[in-house]
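Run: sequence + WQD -> complex structure.
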Amino acid sequence: MRVLLTGGAGYIATHTCVELLNEGNDIVVADNLSNSSEEAVRRVKKLTGRDFPFYRLDVCDARALNDLFDSEKIDSVIHFAGLKAVGESVSKPIEYYTNNLYSTLTLIEAMRAHDVYKIVFSSSATVYSVNTTSEMTEDMNTGCINPYGWTKYMIEQILRDVAKTDERWSAILLRYFNPVGAHKSGMIGEDPNGIPNNLMPCVLQFASGRLENLTVYGDDYPTRDGTCVRDYIHVVDLAKGHVAALKYMDGFSGCDEINLGTGKGTSVLELINTFERVNGLKLDYKIGARRPGDSPACFANADKARRLLGWKAQLNIEDMCRDAWRWQTMNPNGYKKGSD
Ligand code: WQD
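>> structure
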């Protein structure tokens, strides 16, 4: 199978490239490198010993995208490309709606024009409304609290409506929970631009001295230790979920949403303590005020992925902490020059 990965130089996408290549698929990577590095593409080639075309393009650029489809025989698409910083989306809603929605519509048009009808979309647990319950099933109410989440929700709806127009369309919407960790080689990993917002990159940069403080945002939540609970999933498990979704699509017509999570919740303090233990470190974090918008607990019901895709997360929070730290210590400046 020949798979186009938009945003293919990104964190989850590069790990998905490795799994696809290792399973004998061919891939084509397209990325505008606005929040990623071509070094990551080079690392995937080195890691797998496989070569593949890389197109530096913006998915909003219809001409460039159609030229790619004209040049490459694509069987299916995994659509990762998009702006994804929750906080930034609140201050830049126009950029987020324009980029994320327009790029998707441009992609779908190019696919249809080239008789490509299989798409896996990188969606998010952010589409779920902040419910009183913590375990999320796919049929639960959606309702977003930031423009980033709304773009994911709206793109899901676009794909649902498009899939109804022609039975050849096959769309799987993968709702990620909290991706963390890195490939066990330490050659690819998460390389956030600027000051990170997410917990694991903050832990990593604090532990390596790139960040001055590590703050636990609130310890007075109604959870077992007072800190927020999330469903952290190893990025390699997440990547394998995409491979499983592509296989499932061979016999699937329509559009369906599927959670990709472990089904287990881990608190902020539990993650920090596990990170310290498996890596032999002591982190001098401090307890601060709650972060606006955080829900006390959120984790996946992962039954549908197991039922439909035959997929279940295999790696645990210790693997995530160990693999993330290996990436960080091997690449203290991420993919920037002189970091390997
Ligand atoms: C997890 C917990 C923080 C940093 C976000 C996006 C979501 C998805 C995953 C894309 C929270 C706490 C964090 C820190 C802390 N991304 N925390 N100190 O908010 O669950 O989800 O990333 O789809 O869309 O919203 O993840 O890692 O930001 O926070 O205490 O320095 O860690 O308060 O409770 P979140 P997170």
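>> summary
The chain is about 40% helix and 20% strand. The pocket of WQD is lined by residues 84, 86, 124, 126, 176, 178, 197-199, 202, 215-217, 228, 230, 268, 291, 294 (CB under 6 Å).
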